[in-house]
Amino acid sequence: MRDHYQVDWAFAIKNSLDNVVQENFPQDIHRWPVLKAFDFDSYLLNDYFVVIKLKDKISGIPAGGSGRPKDIDLDNNAPNETPNIKNIDKWLDYLNAKLSTRPQDVLLIVPYKEGGKKVEEDWAIFTEEEKQLWHRQIEINIARHFYYLKGFDMKSEFFLPPGYQFLADDCKRLFDDHPDYNKNVFIMTRFVPGNKLLEDLDSEVRRVLRANDLNPIRADDKMYLRDRNLWNNVCVYMNCCKYGIAILEDRIANEFNPNVALEYGYMRALNKPVLLLADTGFRNLRADIIGTLREQFDITDINGTIDKPILKWLKELNIKK
């Protein structure tokens, strides 16, 4: 390994982060971690990769070893296969935990190549998959820093899908009211103010969820958008809930409620667990849900039929109290 290999790649990581932040988050560049100052450590991973960890600091000259990287003692929790584009998320989760990486730090797995005299020459002999691996890790670290700067709980599974980062501040306001992402359940239902049947149904669904230490919320509970945009407000709720319940009924109106259908599709596109809770008399099935298991209740006997389907679903998710 050439002298200063780790130093070269530590600064390459910093420069890549700098470029992405300047392009996508210029308003935050003055407070973005590691861009002002950092120290770094390096580790050998099975002779084919070098793990480089940048440690954010307030100021000062970057410092780190230029000798042989430290060895990593892998344990049984390490992924079985060598790092690749399919398992890189698991590798980073594992190494971040093992090396006690802070939210404001950066960790990347760099393919080790003999022969290059500088970063540009190393990069030229990377395979296309190795280049993809680099770009994917930059994305992951940028996302970690983004959530860190916005004050989100880094231990939860919360994430904002691409294109929705503009809702970060609104999501933070929702989390001020409902701080535990892993307990938030988004209720998808028809909105008809003053309808006694729907009000009773909503009340009973919430009762069952709260009895099992979950936090049911609906998009009409509170407006979090400063511009009061209805769809974006719904997106805030859907992004900030780990689970969802979509209520299917067509006795109030003879239709598959389009809002419920849209919200269900959004939640499932994010791979969030969603219960389809269908009234026994529901007639307006659509092709996109016919193949999905539904749990039934009787809207004419809400008190007597609502507990069983929800509790069955919670048991399947291993979250029944």
Description:
This protein is of the alpha/beta class and 321 residues long. The chain has two domains: 5-150, no CATH class; 165-316, Rossmann fold, CATH 3.40.50. Helices cover 39% and strands 15% of the residues. It contains eleven helices and nine strands. The strands form two sheets. Strands 6-5-7-8-9 form a five-stranded parallel β-sheet, sandwiched between helices. Strands 3-1-2-4 form a four-stranded mixed β-sheet, with helices on both faces. Helix 5 (168-177) packs across helix 7 (230-239). The longest helix is centred in the middle third of the chain and has 23 residues, at 128-150. The protein is elongated, with a radius of gyration of 24 Å. The termini are far apart. The mean pLDDT is 92.
